[in-house]
Amino acid sequence: MRDPYTVLGVPRSASEADIKKAFRKLAKDNHPDRNANDPKAMERFKEANAAYELLSDTVKRGQFDRGEIGADGQPTNPFAGGYGGGGFNPRDFGSSSGRAGGFDFAQGADDLFAELFGGRSPFGSGGTSGRGFRTQVRGPDVAYRLTVPFEDAVALKPQRVVLKSGHTIEIKLPAGLESGKQMRLSGKGEPGPGGPGDAIVTIEIAPHRVLSRDGDDVRLTLPIKLDEAVLGAKVRMPTAEGVVTLTIPPGTSSGRMFRLKGRGFRRIDGTRGDQLVTVQIDLPADHAGLKAFAETFIDARDIRSAIEA
C-alpha cells in the first residue's frame, strides 16, 4: 500500500483538520455514484479511505510515524518484542475481519458520508455505521435514451420513461436542456445486495419540421409573397408554442429578421432565448403580369455601390 500521506496529498506535519479536508475532497471526487463510467474511481476511493482510517487515528498515526506499523496498519516487526512495549498482540489490530489494514471506515468517516452523500456508503445500503468494510455493492446502473419532441424541450414539458421493470415514471426536464444531457434517477437501476443502482437517461431533442435551434434561440425562415412584402400583411407562422400572427410592414425586403422575445429555450438562470424569424420573398416562376410590371418599373437606386467599392 502507498504511503497514506502521499495518498491524501498532505505533508507529515498536516493537522487533523488538513487530513480530514483532504479526505473529504478525495471521497467526493471519487465516490462511485459520481463516477459511473470510471471503474478506477472505486479503487482510489478505497485507498483514500484506508489512508484516512490510519491517519485519523492518533495512536495509529504515531505508530506509523515511528515506523512501528506500515501503511497497511500491520506491525513492521511483530516478533521483535518492541511493539507497544509488550510484543505483538493480534487483538491490537482488531478481529479476523481485517479491520486494521483493510477498508474499514475510520471514526468520523460516517459523518463525512452523511454530509456528502446523504449517509449512503458506496459499498452497500448499510451506510458506514458499525465500522467494517461492507462487501455488498449496489446493482448496476441502467442506461436509457429519451427522445424529446422539439416543442416539449422548449416548454420543458414533463416526459415519461418506461423502465426495464415495466414501470413508467415521469421526469421533469431541467432548464438549460440540450441534446446529450444526462439525468440520473436514483434507485431506478438493476437490483443488488447493497440496493438498486441508478437509471442514467440521456436526452436527445428531436428536430422540428421547420424550426431549428441556435444556442438558446429558435430560428425560422418565413416565406412571404411579393405583394405581402410591398404592401405589408399579417402572416400566420409557427412557433414552438403554437401558431402566431406576424405583422409584415410595407416595403419589407428578403433577409429582414424579426425577433419574438421569450419564445426560445429556457436557460439555467430562468431567462429564455428568442425566436428569430427571417423573411424570404418567394417569387412565382412564370407570371405574365409580374413580368409586364417589371418591364415598366424603373428603380433608379444604386443599391450595390457599397459592395462594389
Task: From the structure above, extract its key features.
three-stranded mixed β-sheet, 25% helix, alpha+beta, 3 domains, 309 residues, HSP40/DNAj peptide-binding domain, 9 helices, Helix Hairpins
Give a brief rundown of this model.
The protein is built from nine helices and eleven strands. The chain is elongated and about 110 Å long.
Structural description of this entry:
- The protein has 309 residues and is an alpha+beta fold.
- It is 25% helix and 20% strand.
- The strands form four sheets. Strands 6-7-11-10 form a four-stranded mixed sheet.
- Mean pLDDT is 83; it is low at 81-108 and 124-135.
The CATH class assignment of the largest domain is Mainly Alpha
Q: From the alpha-carbon coordinates, what is the Rg to the nearest angstrom?
A: 34 Å
- Characterize the largest beta sheet: strand count, sense, and whether it forms a barrel: 4 strands, mixed
Weakly predicted, low-confidence segments: 81-108, 124-135
Please estimate the helix content: 10-25%
What's the CATH architecture name of the largest domain?
Orthogonal Bundle
Q: What's the CATH topology label of the largest domain?
A: Helix Hairpins
**Mean pLDDT metric:** 83
CATH superfamily of the largest domain: DnaJ domain
Query: Class by helix and strand content?
Result: alpha+beta
**First-residue to last-residue Cα separation:** 75 Å
Tally of DSSP β-strands: 11
Number of helices: 9
Strand content: 15-25%
Shape: elongated
Strands ordered across the widest β-sheet? 6-7-11-10
Give the total of domains. 3
Order of helices and strands: HHHHHEHEEEEEEHEEEEHH
